[in-house]
Amino acid sequence: MGIDPNYRTSRPVAGEHAGHKVYGPVEPPGKLGIHGTIVGVDFDICIADGACINACPVNVFQWLDTPGHPASEKKADPVNEQACIFCMACVNVCPVAAIDVKPP
Length: 104
Ligand code: F3S
Ligand code: F3S
Ligand code: ZN
Known about the structure:
This protein has 104 residues and is an alpha+beta fold. Helices cover 13% and strands 25% of the residues.
């Protein structure tokens, strides 16, 4: 199952990271929540495939090390979500549907 497209309202905001919100629950290192509001990446689903990083024409993502997470030890962090031009390439290439994009 992929990212819940309703996470922006259904999940509590657990904090901020690199200029974007983090939606909980967050219990590191095993549970990391969803990073981003315009471009949301479910860290608990991401398997560090990297296709999103290669596909994004405006470099929204940057690797973040997440040692000890069961799905993968790094995640695509949407550090530059404000730059998103909504091409949806990331959404289409992620093999585990970990990304949801919604214009503000
Ligand atoms: Fe990049 Fe995905 Fe937006 S590929 S431009 S973050 S829709
Ligand atoms: Fe992760 Fe999917 Fe990108 S698995 S690294 S969000 S393509
Ligand atoms: Zn982040």
